[in-house]
Write a structure and sequence with these properties.
Layout lengths: L10 H13 L4 H8 L3 H13 L3 E4 L2 H5 L5 E4 L1 H10 L4 H4 L10 H19 L7 E4 H4 L12 E5 L2 E7 L6 H16 L10 E5 L3 H5 L11 E4 L8
Parallel strand pairs: 5-6, 6-7
Antiparallel strand pairs: 1-2, 3-4, 4-5
Length: 231
């Protein structure tokens, strides 16, 4: 046991905790792709972390019926370990201690953001990109609030990527767009190089109703599929 009475972790186990911190909710499939590992190897590590009491596992009969994968997230014990390891401000991550109590739709959206992250990296034009998640951008005061799903830096170009849940009403999508316009007007970012804002919205009818925003001071683009993003 270490000085804070937490179990000693291998480098690989600590790596997994950092990945879950980065994406908040994960499944075996996504972590396996991220690490380029076999699913069995990934499952074994997650099982060990769960047995050590460091991660939550969510899987019941409803998941099985819907063919959904088990979801994993960090618990307060894991966050306290990472606060020391990554030198995080523990008071600023306490809101995550009860992640397991978040609405199911929120959990699924975080997993979908992980999938979006992987898919962007799979596109040839983004193979050398740097992509930051919410966990990494929240510490910067010049980012819009709420922070975007992903922040991409690629070949000198910056992009905010917003993955919109299927159930989000059009009114709230417009509110998210207005947040970017307000952020732009506040001059918290260099206006001459303000990032392009890409919304991924599955519903094509909603995209059509947002066409008027394409003439804004901010460069908005709307796609119904990540793979259709054109750099």
């Amino acid at each position: 046991m270490n000085k804070t009475n937490y179990p000693l972790l291998t480098n690989n186990q600590l790596k997994f905790l950092k990945i879950i911190y980065k994406f908040r909710f994960v499944s075996v499939n996504e972590i396996s792709k991220f690490n380029n590992n076999k699913k069995q190897t990934t499952q074994e590590t997650l099982n060990k972390l769960h047995s050590l009491g460091l991660i939550n596992k969510e899987y019941d009969q409803s998941y099985k019926l819907k063919l959904r994968p088990a979801l994993y997230s960090l618990n307060s014990k894991a966050y306290k370990i990472l606060a020391e390891t990554l030198n995080l401000n523990s008071s600023k991550i306490k809101y995550r201690y009860n992640d397991k109590n978040l609405p199911d739709s929120t959990k699924v959206n975080y997993l979908n953001i992980f999938k979006c992250y992987l898919e962007i990296f799979s596109l040839p034009q983004y193979k050398n990109a740097t992509i930051l998640t919410e966990a990494e951008t929240l510490k910067y005061g010049h980012f819009p609030r709420p922070v975007p799903s992903l922040f991409v830096i690629n070949q000198g170009k910056e992009q905010f990527i917003e993955l919109i849940p299927e159930s989000m009403p059009l009114f709230y999508i417009k509110k998210r767009i207005d947040n970017f316009l307000t952020h732009y007007s506040q001059d918290l970012w260099n206006k001459t190089n303000y990032p392009e804002v890409i919304f991924i919205i599955e519903d094509k009818n909603k995209i059509k109703k947002l066409s008027n925003y394409q003439d804004s001071l901010v460069n908005f683009r709307f796609f119904n599929d990540v793979s259709k993003i054109e750099y």
